[in-house]
Structures are given as C-alpha cells and as structure tokens.
Specification:
Helices cover 38% and strands 20% of the residues. The protein is built from 16 helices and 15 strands. The strands form three sheets. The protein has a six-stranded parallel β-sheet with strand order 6-5-4-7-8-9, sandwiched between helices. Strands 10-11-15-12-13-14 form a six-stranded mixed β-sheet, with helices on both faces. Helix 2 runs parallel beside helix 3, helix 7 crosses helix 9 and helix 13 crosses helix 16. The termini are close together.
Amino acid sequence: MESVQELRKAALEIFGAALKAADPAEAIRRHVRLEGTLLKAGISTFDLSQVRRMFVVGAGKASAPMGAALEEILHDRILEGLMVTKYGHLGPVRRVRLLEAGHPVPDEAGLQAARAVLDLVERAGEGDLVIVLISGGGSALLPFPVEGVTLEEKQKLTGLLLACGAAIKEINAVRKHLSRIKGGKLAQAAFPAKVLALILSDVVGDPLDAIASGPTAPDLTTFADAFEILKRYRLLEQVPASILQHLQAGLEGKVLETPKADDPLFEGVTNVIVGSNLLALLAAKARAEEFGFRTLILSSSIEGETREVAKVHGAIAREVRRTGHPIPPPACIISGGETTVTLRGTGKGGRNQEFVLAAALEVEGLSRVVVLSCGTDGTDGPTDAAGAVADGETLERAKALRLDPSRFLEENDAYHFFQGLKDLIMTGPTNTNVMDVRLILVGGD
C-alpha cells in the first residue's frame, strides 16, 4: 500500500469494521437467547415460567437497536417497555415505547422520560423481571434530580463539568449523588423484582458503577468523592447553591448514601456487559491484518488530555517510520478509550477532531502516515462529525489554504479546520457508543 490516498481509504474501512463490531443489536443477539422457557444472558439463566410479568426499560444512544433485538427474542413476553434515546436516534420498535431527549446536556424531555421510567419500574413487584438496556449517553438521558435541585441547575453543573476537563467517571460520581435514578437507585426502585441489565459499555475499563452512572449497580463513590471532584476542578464557587447544600447534607449524614454492594437488593440484580471498546478494537485489528498491516493494539483504556495523548501517538508514528519500533511498516497502531478536552477557546469541535489536529502537528512531513480518530456514536462533541483524518501532508495543504493549525487548536476549533480541508468524517448517528477508535497507519517503504 503505497499512496496516502490508499492509506486513508484503508483507515476508513478499518474504522468501519470497528463500527460493525459495536453494533448493539448484534451485541444483544450474541449474549441473549431463549431456549424454551429459559432466558440465557451471559452466564446467567432465568426461568420465564416462574416470571409473573416482564418489563423493559433503558436509556442510551443504542436504545432503539437494543430494544428491537430484545423484542425479536422475547416477542409478546414483554408486557410493557419504555426507553429513552438521543434526538435523531429513533428506530423501529413494537412493544417498547421509545422517547427522545437531550444529550450531552439533559433537557425537560429527558426529565419527563426519566420520571416515566421510574414510575414503570416502581410498578414491578415480587415475581416480576425488569430488563434494563443501558448504553452510552444513558446518564444524560435520564435526568431526575433530587428534591431541591432543578433541571436547570443540573444542566449548569453538567456544562461546567464537561468544560473543565473532568473524566466521565468523575462527572458520573457527582451526578449519582444528585439523582433519583443513578447510582443503583433504579434497581432499588424495582426491588423486590429481579433485574437483568444488558450493558453496552462506553466507559474505560467497563466499570458497572460508572456506565450511565450505574443505575443498576452498587455505587462505589460517596458524597465525599462528589464534593472533592468539584473542589479539584475549582467549581465550588460556580455550581448552584442547591447542589452544594445537597452534597453538604450528604456529608453530614442528613441524606442517605447511594446503595452500596452489601445492600440485599443487589442479590436479585444481574449485570451483563454485551459490548465494549475492546471488541471494536479487535475487529479493527482483524480488518487491518487483512490489508496486510502489522498491527498493534496499544490499549482500550486510554484517558487523559486529548492533546497530550495525541503527542504520544505522534511520537509512536515517528518511531515506526524512523526505526521500525514497536512494529515495522506497514504498520497499524490502534487505541481506544475516551480522552478529555479542557476548553480554552470558543471554537467548535470534539475530542476526536482535536486529537487528529494535535497529531497532525506531530506527524508533519512524515511520508505515508495517516491518523484517524472517531467516536463510535457518530457524533464528536457538539458537532455532526464523528471525527477527522489527517496525514503527513495535511499541514502543507492547510497552509496553502491559509489555515493556521496552531491557532485553530488554541481556539478548540478543529471542526472548522478540517471542514476547510474536507477531512471531517461523517457517519451520521450510528445508534451505538463504545467510546473512540484511533488509528495510525504507516505505509511500507
């Protein structure tokens, strides 16, 4: 594979393979099957002849395909269902009702949907089974603040946490202590019914308590953790007073903690991971090898400031080109996870576009090197792009168009930089989310 254009085409196909592996409907079909009256999910089995009623609830960008796949398996065994997805992510479902709401900042539609989901779950009782379908975005799509905190105040908090560069685990730790659903409270509301949660992970390491803020998992964080996160990012003086008051009440024991692992309610809860970033990366690796690349997966758990992560990837590209380490060309270096962006400017972009822009500065002048980074959900930050692609000649092309990459990076304006170069990657909504896929391709000599 000689030319940059061929490498770019290969990168898009490799990313496409990762997307296909992250398909949420296939994830449900791989992990859930019905054998007579036995429902098998992962290593767990439920005898449906002993189940009085079955409800389905959930939230996330993959709600539509996950719900449709479950309907194919269970048909009319589902008594009633209600799920929430991001605007524009609807799909065909029959027995499960699908609502749309705001993401990443929660809105009034999400609040009404969350209230309806909780009402449905609270109807379940002894002998019932509640199946919960969880995917990326579920936390923002189920906003149900505790008493005394308004949706607008929680919206402001979410905006502050997103802008300061807090990791998703940190954001969710705060959210859980301000919610009536998150942090195991959905499972608490379903008790004493049994709960089966089928989870498409969008969090590094697949921690059950962090995905969608863990509505069906014991919460490992505390009020003290939530308060410390706001302190660490210097937000104590910026967040609404009602939020500080609630957290302070929790610190003083005046408000009950979220349910922990020793709570008896979790004896009837089964959580199954049906899809993850690693599965997507493995599919990308297999497709890259079909192209003839020597392939290395760095990690599916990369976090940190996007620009710094880009520098490391750029350094690896230079090393591969210069010395043939850690693998010789033709090489495909793959990584996943979810980085963060600390906003300094007022531009438009997302962590994937910013990664590619920062990486483009690092690989400038390298022959036959391509960098791609995309979100598997098809939307990178508040944009309509999944990500972007660049190569060793990108900056030369940019200068010819009078686009200053350093200025665009400083303004967090990667979207308009790559828009000018026609190097944005547009997939449209993918109805899935297993974080990001990053590729570095280095062509052979």
